[in-house]
Amino acid sequence: MNCENINITEASSNDLREILELLSQVGLPHDGVAENINTFLIARDESTRLIATIGLERRGNTALLRSAAVAPEYQGCGIGSLLTERLLQGARNDGVERVVLLTSTASEFFARRFGFCEASRTNFDTELAASSEWNLPRCSSAVCMSLDLKGRDVSA
CA–CA distance from 81 to each of 16, 111, 125, 132, 142 (Å)? Predict the structure, then answer.
């Protein structure tokens, strides 16, 4: 495993199968991925293997950060931080005012690296009601976190 020469690009429908395989590998849901593929970023190693992904599901001025996954053997290399930073910067540039996420395992990472704060899900139920991921039973017990992007530097 080489953490150098990682290529980050926007995802396309051609990447869907590999994204879904990675999400399965790390235990994340597939719901809504195909419908939002044009908002995903992917990372490939020097052999062009897909090793990480992250997506954004926009609903008005609010967006749901979703499907943040790094292949286990590449965790700890900083790829997740790079993808998140790039995704948040793109969201900010596109006029997203707040980003919300649900997590069962990475609340400390998102709080420490990017300033996400725990929030009540009910604050976002109306805005994110159309999101298939938001409505998954398995996500109902996840920690809800939010980040206000207005006037914020989103560098890790």
Answer: 22, 12, 27, 25, 20
| Residue 58, strand partner residues | 63
Residue 8 near residue 86, CB atoms below 8 Å: yes
Q: What is the rounded CA–CA span in Å between residue 2 and residue 147? A: 32
135/95 Cα distance (integer angstroms): 25
Compare 98 and 2 and report the one with higher pLDDT: 98
Burial class (CB in 10 A: 0-12, 13-18, 19+), 124: buried
pTM for the whole thing? 0.89
CB-based contact 68:77 (threshold 8 Å): no
Instruction: Count the residues in the chain.
Output: 156
